[in-house]
């Protein structure tokens, strides 16, 4: 499972993040807030794209 870095926060490679988010779903959580740390707009857009391409598909 992804590394817990704070209450409800998750850090890890795509499959670890997806596994942790799935665990929240199993507990009854039906909404999450995704906060991506970035150093600027370009990096943030890249991270959103990677999340959508690599994590979201693993969630079904």
Automatic annotation (TrEMBL):
What's the protein here called? Uncharacterized protein
Query: Where does the source fall among the domains of life?
Result: Bacteria
């Amino acid at each position: 499972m992804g590394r817990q870095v704070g209450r409800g926060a998750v850090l890890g490679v795509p499959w670890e993040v997806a596994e942790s988010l799935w665990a929240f779903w199993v507990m009854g959580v039906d909404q999450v807030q995704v906060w991506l740390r970035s150093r600027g707009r370009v990096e943030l857009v890249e991270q959103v794209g990677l999340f959508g391409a690599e994590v979201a598909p693993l969630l079904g």
